[in-house]
Amino acid sequence: MKALPFPCIRPAQDRVLEALPAMGGILSGNDALRGAIADGLMLKDPGAAYYVYECSGEPGRATGVVAICPVNVLTGSDEAAAESIDALAAAHAIAELKVQPRPVSLAYEASPVMDIILGAAKEGASLYAVTDPAGITHRVWEVKREDAVGAIRAMLDQAPEPTLADDPAYAAALAGAAQLLANEAHTAGTYTGREPFNFAVAVLFPTAQASGGAPQVPTGLLTHQIARF
Fold first, then answer.
1. What does the alpha-carbon distance between residue 27 and residue 38 come to, in Å, rounded to a whole number?
2. Most buried among 13, 19, 23, 215, by the most CB within 10 A?
């Protein structure tokens, strides 16, 4: 499958506990998000990276790799969800914000080698270690060293296409937002197929860890800018 490193918009490390409870306001519109970036509450990573995400608590521990995948992996999973009023409204909100608020959870067939690579990444210092009100601890590590990025990409290139392990309505909203932005680009005559909205940020969990429903990354912790705002 195709799963690439990406430049992330995320909370400043030293202000994450301030930022996460305020995400409803920060992600309420372009002006609010720009203000949070200008204030230093949120930051835009200057380069592309993979991220390792781990959540631990009841019922256990799960580790995924966060990357951007072609948005077509989300299409056709649930027509009823795609046509729901909530999904359509969410699609318009995401298209207007021009930022995907959280990664969509996908399941894939991970290899033992990938487990070793991600385990090595987790030996370093984490960007975040946050425990939510439900008692779930969320940790994130950034992977941007060239050899480590290359190793993760090689493993993902060999993996079969992932399957949805998230709310179908959320996946439908992301696909819908991408289509709205693509329609705008086609109308303007600027569409190339390489725009960021052609990709969705996803946390890829091993299938065995996603059975019964995969965890969700907290809103705003790792976001993907899908168009200029």
1. 14
2. 215
Alpha carbon distance 94, 109 (integer Å): 29
Tell me the pTM. Answer: 0.94
Q: Is the pLDDT of residue 81 over 60?
A: no
Report which of 228, 205, 219, 229 is spatially closest to residue 67, judged by C-alpha positions.
Answer: 205
Whether the Cβ atoms of residue 6 and residue 156 lie closer than 8 Å to each other: no
Q: Determine the Cα–Cα distance for residues 25 and 10; give it in Å rounded to an integer.
A: 14
Note whether residue 85 is domain-resident.
Answer: yes
For helices 146-158 and 112-121, angle between their N-to-C axes, nearest 10 degrees: 150
Position 155 in a domain: yes
Query: Is 143's pLDDT higher than 60?
Result: yes
Domain count, the chain: 1
Radius of gyration of the chain (CA): 17
Say if 88 falls within a structural domain: yes
Asked whether residue 74 is assigned to any structural domain, the reply reads yes
